[in-house]
Design a protein that fits this description.
seven-stranded mixed sheet, binds S-adenosylmethionine, 9 strands, two-stranded antiparallel sheet, alpha/beta
């Protein structure tokens, strides 16, 4: 256990603040029993380069770039994800993209049940093999963007909230997150590995370069936090960029009240469609709206906003007020 903790501290833990860090050590001390095997479930074995390589070679698997396949090979990162997500036996976890089942093995060890949705059919025989010891995992061969997550929660977990956990395929990070938010599926928390640059956009504050539509959507639905940064060496093949694990706790109710949620997201899109435009021009030129430039200006006046303001300066509450005024002007 000492060696394991050292590797968490030395690698994934570098950017974790100290109190978070203390908690993590405490939890891993408790988890030690499980990792050594508590007799009820197998011990995860894939968090390691040579074992992953052996599985890939056994099945002659070739990575498919178009599916964003960068598999985790680092146990400290895998345990960091479990710890960040606070997985316990009471949890039903939805995993997006299990790959060869590496994170899935850890999730299945600590959670009550896991449903893993994988698009690549070639991975199915591998998953059957690597997850054979766990009887609490269901693998669905499907595109997560076309999967009815609400129905999964209903069918598998009696409509109770799920935890979402994933090393996401980076090429569709935003559509996956937006799809989850807008699905109406009950989930309590999301813990996802994304590109570091995307993580920075997710937590960005108004006025910063990274701030945009994704930051606002994430804030509207959740309370986001970057848990830790992950180096390319923790994956096979190595991605070109650094990654980050982001934890998002879903709000019980959104932090702002709006008359029409769709309008809120349309105004946000209109605002960031072309970042250089003033918000007044963004609203007037947005294809889904039919407000004139003068009407857009009047809406901004009604909110006490300068007609030359750009969306990147506005907080979620400003967008909410503006959306309500535009609804009244319809
Ligand atoms: N969880 C594994 C790990 O950490 O080693 C694999 C993560 S890999 C970054 C992303 C996984 O998502 C791949 O297995 C890929 O095939 C799968 N994937 C890509 N697009 C998908 C989609 N639209 N629906 C479901 N799975 C997808």
């Amino acid at each position: 256990m000492q060696g394991l903790m050292t590797s968490i501290i030395g690698r994934a833990g570098q950017s974790i603040r100290s109190e978070k860090y203390e908690k993590m050590i405490e939890r891993f001390t408790q988890m030690g029993n499980l990792l050594d095997g508590d007799g009820s479930r197998p011990v995860p074995y894939l968090g390691n380069r040579s074992r992953c390589k052996a599985v890939l070679e056994k099945y002659g698997f070739s990575f498919r770039k178009k599916f964003g396949q960068n598999f985790l090979i680092d146990e400290s990162v895998l345990l960091g994800i479990i710890d960040t997500a606070g997985i316990t036996k009471d949890d039903y976890v939805l995993e997006i993209g299990p790959g060869i089942g590496t994170l899935t093995q850890y999730l299945a060890t600590y959670a009550g049940k896991v449903c893993a949705v994988e698009i690549d059919r070639a991975l199915l025989p591998i998953l059957e093999d690597t997850l054979a010891g766990w009887d609490n995992v269901t693998v669905l061969n499907a595109d997560i963007l076309k999967t009815d997550i609400r129905a999964i929660a209903e069918r598998e977990n009696g409509g109770r909230p799920l935890k979402v956990c994933a090393n996401l395929p980076y090429y569709i990070t935003t559509p996956i997150l937006m799809g989850l938010f807008e699905s109406g599926a009950p989930f309590s928390e999301l813990t996802v590995m994304v590109q570091k640059e995307v993580a920075e956009r997710m937590i960005a504050e108004p006025g910063s370069k990274a701030y945009g539509a994704l930051s606002l959507a994430v804030r509207y639905f959740t309370e986001p936090k970057i848990a830790f940064i992950v180096d390319p060496g923790s994956f096979m093949p190595r991605p070109k960029v650094q990654s980050a694990v982001v934890h998002m706790k879903r709000h019980a109710s959104p932090p702002v009240d709006v008359k029409d949620e769709q309008m809120l997201f349309d105004v946000i899109r209109a605002s960031f469609n072309e970042r250089r435009k003033t918000l007044q021009n963004g609203i007037a030129d947005y294809g889904l709206f039919s407000y004139s430039k003068e009407q857009a200006g009047l809406a901004l006046d009604a909110c006490g906003l300068d007609r030359r303001v750009r969306g990147e300066k506005l907080a979620l509450a400003d967008f909410a007020r503006l959306a309500d005024v535009l609804v009244d002007m319809r």
